[in-house]
Amino acid sequence: MSKVRVLVGTRKGAFVLSSDGKREQWDVSGPHFAGWEMYHLKGSPADPNRLYASQSSGWFGQVIQRSNDGGKTWEAPGKSNQFAYDTSSETGKPLTTHQFYDGTQHPWEFKRVWHLEPSFTDPDTVYAGVEDAALFRSTDGAHSWHELAGLRGHGTGPKWQPGAGGLCLHTILLDPANPARMYIAISSAGAFRTDDGGQTWKPINQGLRSQYIPDPTAEVGHCVHRLALHLSRPDVLFMQKHWDVMRSDNAGDLWHEVSGNLPTDFGFVIDVHAHEPETIYVVPIKSDSEHFVPDGKLRVYRSRTGGNEWEALTKGLPQNDCYVNVLRDAMAVDALDQCGIYFGTTGGQVYASADAGDNWAPIVRDLPAVLSVEVQTLP
Amino acid sequence: MIRVELPQHLRTLAGVGSEVEIDVEGQPTQRSVLDALEARYPMLRGTIRDHVTRQRRPFLRFFACEQDLSHEPSDAPLPESVASGTEPFLIIGAIAGG
């Protein structure tokens, strides 16, 4: 029988939750890296026992951890925590400035790794999205990192500005059908695409409308919270923006809104069913000034039509006095025949549904605030 | 032999106890002690000093012999009792945060 392994990053450590294919009984391992902020953990599709983890601290900075045994043991390899912006004359770009909260220009400063995205084919290749926004790649199992400077230096960098969480590159989507294509998203700059393996990048924000920026339809400046795609159809993208749930059917060249009947279209997470490319999930959040679920009810919304028509999924989720948030990297799906959906909350709960969202149950209730959730489907 | 005392999170990261002993050639300074520490425990690179600027991270301080050495020049000699191993060189995290 297949198994699942859920990798949970929290404000105070990491946890590994394991179960068989029934997903009823769970083994909880952790905290790993107790006391550190674990922004993200993710396993390699090419070698599920190879895990990468972003460990950070306001005191001690950034560390990247690696496991070769599915999270039982960890190591911090080589210069795994050195993220230096590439300003070399051969491959780099000048370190310009970006726009700061007050509208002035501000130097680029590395702060932390928000997201790690391992390659589909090589366990030693992994991408890192960092704050201040840039994309790095390691091809030696996180021993060393090199910036793909074409993104930060492609021209609009001085117009990028931090969202409330910082100027973070938080989403990296690899195209399984086209190794040269990759999508990333930055708060608050927007979405970008490369078609040449990361050398050059193009903003893909046409169709977005953000009333909170001076030009609501600007080329960059949109606070994209999360992108998602289905592996079988990588040209179709879904986006949870600051406000608005969006969809693109042409690799991000043009977006249209699919918020439909959602109670609020503010939110952070968005994900796609493992076997149904038109079935998507979001967790609406009340507003940009009240970061919790509306009406005290924790509701996942599912659309089986690729957006616009949404149904609330509530069975097993608290429906009164609940005021948690679900952060942008804190939802994932497994690939079992009956698709499992998982998400973590700022209240420390990790919920699982083994039937595509119809019924939910908490795996754990009392972890530190959850920053990220990833799932591995294991043989 | 120089005795270096680490804050708890760095002990865990390096897999060591509260105090490590390192050898430094010549007159020890903050720079030479930290260089030797990072050479022996590469996972500590960037956690005490910034990778690029080599400056002390803001929430850390250096103490020895009940003196705050945090703002001393990196190449200033450390006290003789640190050089002789009588007193440890202390790396301390700020008491802040949650």
Nutshell version of this structure?
With 379 residues, chain A is mostly beta strands. Chain A has one helix at residues 149-152, and strands at 3-10, 13-20, 27-32, 37-43, 51-57, 61-67, 97-99, 105-107, 112-118, 126-131, 134-138, 146-147, 168-174, 182-187, 190-194, 202-203, 224-229, 237-241, 245-248, 256-257, 266-272, 280-285, 300-303, 311-313, 331-333, 341-344, 350-353, 361-364, 370-378.
The H-and-E topology of chain B, N to C, reads as: EHEHEEHE
Runs of chain B in which pLDDT lies below 50 for 5 or more consecutive residues are: none
- CATH-defined superfamily of chain B: Beta-grasp domain
> Number of DSSP strands of chain B?
5
Number of domains of chain B: 1
| SSE topology string of chain A | EEEEEEEEEEEEHEEEEEEEEEEEEEEEEE
Largest interface, per-chain counts?
A-B, 20 and 21 residues
| Share of helical residues of chain B | 10-25%
Structural class of chain B: alpha+beta
Query: Residue share in helices of chain A?
Result: under 10%
Q: Looking at this structure, what is the CATH superfamily of chain A?
A: YVTN repeat-like/Quinoprotein amine dehydrogenase
Largest sheet of chain B: 5 strands, mixed
Cα separation of the termini of chain B:
35 Å
Which percent range describes the beta-strand content of chain B?
Answer: 15-25%
Backbone shape of chain B: globular
On the 0-100 scale, what is the average pLDDT of chain B?
93
Quickly give the CATH architecture of chain B.
Roll
Strand percent estimate of chain A: 35-45%
What does this structure look like?
The complex is a heterodimer of chains A (379) and B (98). Chain A is mainly beta. Chain A has 1 helix and 29 strands. Chain A has one domain (11-16, 30-325, 351-359): Methylamine Dehydrogenase, Chain H (7 Propeller). A 4-stranded antiparallel β-sheet of chain A has the order 3-2-1-29, with no helix packed on it. A 4-stranded antiparallel β-sheet of chain A has the order 9-10-11-12. A 4-stranded antiparallel β-sheet of chain A has the order 13-14-15-16, with no helix packed on it. In chain A, a hairpin with a 7-residue loop joins strand 17 and strand 18. The longest helix of chain A is centred in the middle third of the chain and has 4 residues, at 149-152. Chain B is of the alpha+beta class. Chain B has one domain (2-93): Ubiquitin-like (UB roll) (Roll). Chain B has helices at 8-14, 30-40, 80-83; strands spanning 2-5, 19-22, 60-64, 67-68, 89-93. Classes of the chains: A mainly beta (379), B alpha+beta (98). Chain A binds chain B through residues 33-36, 57-63, 75-76, 78-84, and chain B through 7-10, 12-13, 42-43, 45-48, 50-52, 57, 59-60, 93-94, 97.
